[in-house]
Design brief:
Elements (H helix, E strand, L loop, with lengths): L3 E3 L2 H4 L3 H15 L3 E4 L2 H8 L1 E3 L11 E5 L3 E5 L6 H9 L2 E5 L3 H6 L6 E4 L6 H6 L5 E4 L3 H7 L3 H24 L1
Parallel strand pairs: 2-7, 5-6, 7-8
Antiparallel strand pairs: 1-3, 2-4, 4-5
Length: 175
Amino acid sequence: MRGIFELPVEFSGLSATDKIQSLRSSMKQSGANLLIISALDEIAWTFNIRGNDVECNPVAIAYSVITDKQSILFTDAVKISRELHDYLDSQNIITAEYSKISDYLNSLKPETTILFDGNKVNYNLRKAIPADCRVIEAPSPVALLKSIKNEIEIEGFRNVMIKDGVALVRFMMWA
């Protein structure tokens, strides 16, 4: 069975709540009150979750919407264990069925200003946004925040590089 699991803060360095707060600050600077995230790696980073939906990639099939008051993870409910539900609840993250994102976007009020990366949002999501909503297409604020590594992430990279170097040397000795 495919599932989603939490990446503990001891490996990520920041809680999902902290990351979402940073995204809300970026949204406010852009004049947006809703952010659509559709890139799977960005969703995984934002919510400190991992999955096994895509071979050789630790991501889960999902969409996300962040507003000034809510964080919603749209994914298949069967992938959410009791433990993950408790974790998401502790981070004030609401879950919704994957197929309901278009309905959610269709129901947005005209005064909604939506921020999304036009290079990452698919046609169906773009089409679901009501015409009377204001749209801001800009590079993803998640990608920018994700690119700035904290001390725990840097230490994780160092450890991985050491293990990779050891594995490479062992392979060369074997060959």
